Amino acid sequence: MPQLNPNPWFFIMLLSWLTFSLILQPKLLTFTSTNLPSNKTLTTQKSSSWNWPWI
């Protein structure tokens, strides 16, 4: 059963993980998000209860 041989698959996984962590991840982290969090004050709105006819 050749799929149980981990030699080529482990190398491919290791190479792809290193590519992502060393090359792609720093490039992706340099992008700034378009929706930056703002310093808005949260306002709570008073909600009124519903008058259900069957209660």
Give the SSE order as H and E letters: H
Could you tell me the strand content as a percent range?
A: under 5%
CA-to-CA gap between the ends? 69 Å
Return residue spans where pLDDT drops below 50 for at least 5 consecutive residues: none
- What's the rounded overall pLDDT mean? 79
Radius of gyration: 27 Å
Helix content: 40-55%
Number of strand elements: 0
Shape: elongated
Going by helix content, strand content and strand pairing, the class is: mainly alpha
Number of helices: 1
What is the makeup of the main sheet?
A: none
GO molecular function, one term: proton transmembrane transporter activity
Transmembrane segments: 6-24
InterPro entries: ATP8_metazoa, ATPase_protein_8
Main location: mitochondrion
Give a description of the structure.
By secondary structure, the protein is mainly α. The chain is 44% helix and 0% strand. It has one helix and no strands. The longest helix is centred in the first third of the chain and has 24 residues, at 6-29. The radius of gyration is 27 Å and the shape is elongated. It starts with 5 loop residues before the first helix and ends in a 26-residue tail after the last helix. The mean pLDDT is 79.
Layout of strands and helices, then pairs:
Blueprint: H1 6-29
